Amino acid sequence: MSRDDSNRRKKASGRQGGNFKKNSYARGNAPIKRSTAPKQASDPNSIRLNKYVANSGVCSRRDADIYIAAGNITVNGKPITEMGYKVKLTDEVKFDGRLLNPIKKEYVVLNKPKDFSTTIRDEKGKRHVSGLISNASKSKLLPVDKLEKEDTGLLLFTNDGDLTKRLKSPINGLRKIYHLVLDRDLIAADLQKIKEGVMVDEKVVRVQDISYIDNAPKREVGIEIFSSRAKILERLFNQLDYKIVKLDRVVYGGLTKKDLPRGHWRFLTEQEVINFNMVK
């Protein structure tokens, strides 16, 4: 018997005895690898972990995937390395031990028009600045500070609570420039007094600069100030028996009204956000 005949008999014997095993995976016969990870129930209130991390401002989604794979992210105390893992907004997610906030931080500047309130608890039916930026974000963006209803100019909105807290009472102050219209001409002697510092509520108010507006009546002035005290300009001029008829904030921090018409808004640039986050 030849070697070939012997091999054919062995194969036939294997088929008859039921011991024949297919070893070709060409037609979909490859063994299926089943995941051992527990399946997550679909939840409309859950989001992918990489998006959660990216929204917190730590890094991009692509970088978040790298950190997840490396085991840097924990969910409710347990390291998660599974790609596509979903978390709930109520879960405790940490990056290298630091608790993350999944709400994407957004920043909008508005050139506020007259007759819009910035007070949160405003009377029903009154026009509020939030309506002017309603299309900017799905998040609730709040003004960092206030402008009176009749005032105009730059107003910053954000959902970044830490930044809002710092800007409301910065240690070194925040640069603001206003165009004011007074109820009467500002005499040179009073302008000089303001430059030197005026006592308001037993505390001297320091201004960086004040000057008359070019080619305008002397009741119009430009004033640069860093103070964050409430209604400080109104109180300052009241101290000298003047009333502010119009107030327009033309500079706020590093923001200006350039290319931003009254009633319009825009998102802050990445560099502008960085600049504000440097404020202590």
From TrEMBL:
Gene3D superfamilies: Alpha-L RNA-binding motif (3.30.70.1560), Pseudouridine synthase I, catalytic domain, N-terminal subdomain (3.30.70.580), RNA-binding S4 domain (3.10.290.10). Residues 47-104 form the RNA-binding S4 domain. It is an enzyme of class 5 (isomerase). GO terms for molecular function: isomerase activity. Keywords: Isomerase, RNA-binding. Its EC number is 5.4.99.-. This is Pseudouridine synthase. It comes from Maribacter chungangensis.
